[in-house]
Amino acid sequence: MKLPQFLLAFASASVIAVGLAFAEPAKPAPAGTKGKCCVNAEKEGKTCTHGCCVEAAKAGKNCEKCGGTNEKKP
Fold first, then answer.
1. Mean pLDDT, the chain, as a whole number?
2. Where are the chain's structural domains?
């Protein structure tokens, strides 16, 4: 009775391992982009009021916490 349970567990683990091995890596956001909240605020003609975005703007950067990136496209 333990053999079928073992085979089922082994088959399940194998399927999960193969799925993880062939999965595509997550694609990063394009370089030098603003966060979604900042883009939405700009559409309304305002600036984003999130604390993290305000601090990043003072430093001359985009807020990475909200999905922005700071690298410029080559």
1. 86
2. 29-74
Is the pLDDT at 69 greater than 90? The verdict is no
- The pTM for the full model equals 0.52
| Dihedral over alpha carbons 64, 30, 73, 58 (to 10 degrees) | -20
Burial degree of 33 (CB within 10 A; 0-12, 13-18, 19+): middle
In SS3 terms, 16-74 reads as HHHHHHCCCCCCCCCCCCCCHHHHHHHHCCCCCCCHHHHHHHHCCCCCCCCCCCCCCCC
The whole-angstrom separation of Cα 63 and Cα 61 is 7
Q: What would the mean pLDDT of 34-58 be, rounded to a whole number?
A: 91
